[in-house]
Design goal:
Blueprint (H helix, E strand, L loop, with lengths): L2 H19 L7 H13 L4 H8 L3 H13 L3 E5 L7 E5 L1 H25 L2 H22 L2
Antiparallel strand pairs: 1-2
Helix pairs in contact: 2-5, 3-4
Length: 141
């Protein structure tokens, strides 16, 4: 088995899967990503979000502004540097993020139910554990 060929096939397949699942999203991907980072990582600055998303500060700031206008995030002065804002997920933001996640999981779950046999579902479940290990190796977690 050529691991590099496998890696490229996996990269392509996972990318296509993620794009397919995102078709049910009701909000722009950048905004959903910001909500997800705030949910998983706690309060963050706009600069933190830009770095995590791999986008410019201006792009992250636009997403933050739009989310703030919708009441999904709010900022407070950074305790160590009053020039910065620490962004927090609001209850409304947490609810919106949960709805997005539920839509994605629902679409994926329906596809799994309609596509795979019981044995394939078991094998897919085993693959999730392998993918989690691979992710941990790549992220150092």
């Amino acid at each position: 088995m050529d691991e590099d060929v496998l890696a490229e096939e996996l990269r392509q397949s996972l990318g296509e899967l993620v794009r397919a699942v995102r078709t049910v999203d009701t909000m722009p991907p950048g905004e959903a990503a910001v909500l997800g980072f705030l949910d998983r990582g706690g309060p963050l600055t706009t600069a933190d979000l830009a770095r995590l998303r791999g986008v410019t500060h201006q792009s992250a700031a636009k997403s933050v502004k739009d989310l703030s206008t919708e009441g999904l995030v709010h900022g407070e002065r950074h305790p160590d540097d009053g020039r910065k804002l620490l962004l927090h997920l609001t209850d409304a933001g947490r609810s919106r993020l949960q709805r997005e996640r539920t839509l994605r999981a629902g679409a994926l779950g329906a596809a799994i139910r309609e596509t795979f046999t019981p044995d394939e579902k078991r094998r897919l479940s085993e693959s999730v554990a392998l993918l989690s290990r691979l992710t941990a190796r790549l992220t150092g977690n």
